[in-house]
Amino acid sequence: METLADLVERLGGVPLSRIRLKPAPGTATEADVISIAAHEDRLCELVDGVLVEKPMGYEESLIAVAIIRIVSTFVHLGRLGKVTGADGMLKLFPGLIRIPDVAFVTQVRYRAAKVRGVAVPLLVPDLVVEVLSAGNTRKEMLIKRGEYFSAGVRLVWMVDPKTRTVEVYKSPDDSITLTGDRAIDGGDVLPGFSMSLHEIFAELDDDQS
Known about the structure:
By secondary structure, the protein is α+β, with helices and mostly antiparallel strands.
């Protein structure tokens, strides 16, 4: 990358306001991610030595919490693994740290990873959920999906509060879009799991009855 335009293109056209200049792009490390989270209360992903702030809004948080509540209940009842939220930083590859809004990892993967006492474990979840924010771009999410599946993620849900739809991906190019009151199932990742779109998007309504 020779220009700022090259950098923005590499990151998927994200707004310049999300790209940190200190430390200089290309020189940031995992330690910087941890330090900023601890001292500035900001979440940054790390891509090729570049810190990219993670956008999040109030409504996106409502949706993420609703999904965590429903998925966690199912997972904990069956002792199937672990569920993390939007502050659960994960190292997918050396030099690549992503922070999905919700992530589920099976007991098998969790036990195989060295997680205890590690702020950013080298851990690939089985399910990733991204709740789209206004600051996300379509290309950015395309890049993220590719990274998730390359790392070994088996299922990705892209949740759009604006359109109240969910795109379900079993691979980067295999997806269906759910609308209305259709249900999301857990496929081979969470067999027997089902959650209606109404359950999560009702959080955006004044009257949730």
